[in-house]
Amino acid sequence: MKFRILFITQDDPFYVKLFFEEFFRNYKDLDEIRGVVIAQAMGKKSLFALANQMYNFYGPFNFIKVGSKYAIYKLLPIFNGFLNGAIAYNLNQLCKKYQIKVLKRQNINSEAFLDELKTMNLDLIISVAAPAIFKDRLIQIPRYGCINIHNAKLPKYRGMMPNFWQLYHNEKKVGITIHEINPKIDDGKILLQKEVEVEPAETLDFLIKRTKRVGAHCMMEAIDMIKSGNIKYIENDAKEASYFSFPTKEDVKKFKAMGKKLL
Description:
Shape: globular
Order of helices and strands: EHEHHEHEHEEHEEHEH
Mean pLDDT: 93
Number of strands: 9
CATH topology: Rossmann fold
Largest sheet: 7 strands, mixed
Helix content: 25-40%
Number of helices: 8
CATH architecture: 3-Layer(aba) Sandwich
Distance between the termini: 46 Å
Low-confidence stretches: none
CATH superfamily: Formyl transferase, N-terminal domain
Number of domains: 1
Structural class: alpha/beta
């Protein structure tokens, strides 16, 4: 039988789409992908709380710059019909270009969604910046479980914004990890790890974009390992773990004081 893969992600026009562009362009068996689930990204945050968090992170000038760019990304797909879909401005259009089904769901752990997944006879679910924690019942549905891509060399830099924190701590290389998902955050067994050199004067924005594209190739390699059964797990020792939350305004000030740039 054909291997059956489902992605769970969010509709982030800045970075997530870059992963899928690279993946769809290079993966040799796109007919294995049963769909891409775009889950609700805001979680428990209100729109105001989310905007305030972004304002504190970017500062006034960059907040306007990023906000304007986001608004343009939201408007461009509306006019894409005049261009006959020549350019995919969001993930939904990108999936349409490659004839991949898109499912938009609010709660990936809901009873209704789990029942829907059971009918799909899935071999693997892949999280790419999925905006919710996978609970046990979801993890147990696919034949080979669920895997996630995390942009750090686990067990270090678990949690949010790993590329920011690796730059913040002056790492010369940043990690990319493909790991199995369990109910704990970034805690599952590691299938594959790569390191990427940090380029001189590289901005956080550019580093995230670069590692998203590299990560797509790491994910292809991990899928091949699962399909062949040729996996040599790497230890993800919780005793060696470090965990980071979303950077505060003070964290960003220190980041900039070190001569580092967000954009």
